[in-house]
Amino acid sequence: MAAQASGGVPLSTLAPKYLHTNSTSHTWPFGAIAELIDNAYDPDVSAKQFWIDKTMIKEKLCLTFMDNGNGLDHETMHKMLSFGYSDKTAKKGHVPIGMYGNGFKSGSMRLGKDAIVFSKSESGMCIGMLSQTYLELIGADQIQVPIVCITERNLSSYILFN
């Protein structure tokens, strides 16, 4: 059953097949790579460096994209993995590239079926997943984005959010 908004009006949902459909907006992989680089350039990220590498994991080619920006907390990670959310604004004349909240999803899913995001920020560490493989395995009828965060409270203990 679909989630309900106030007044009983059903909320719109996205089927897992949309992850692939959305990725076809990139006709070539370099456009998808550009989307991911754009995210590191935006003013709220403050990244000064960006690295792209490839590695083999269990005989599968994996691309890694890494920057030295501010990182993502739980709320920001969830917004990045959600569709259509963007609250980016210019800072000190630095105008953001992303405006529609779709670039990470379309870019990452054009390059592969799965994306795992590891992020470290001032408040702690988060891992988020956008995965067609996972959604197929669990038989999902709408997109789910698992996120696990560990937030540092003090030097000796952590809080796990799920």
UniProtKB/TrEMBL annotation:
InterPro entries: HATPase_C_sf, MORC_ATPase. One of its GO terms (molecular function) is ATP hydrolysis activity. PANTHER family: MORC FAMILY CW-TYPE ZINC FINGER PROTEIN 3 (PTHR23336:SF17), ZINC FINGER CW-TYPE COILED-COIL DOMAIN PROTEIN 3 (PTHR23336). This is Morc S5 domain-containing protein.
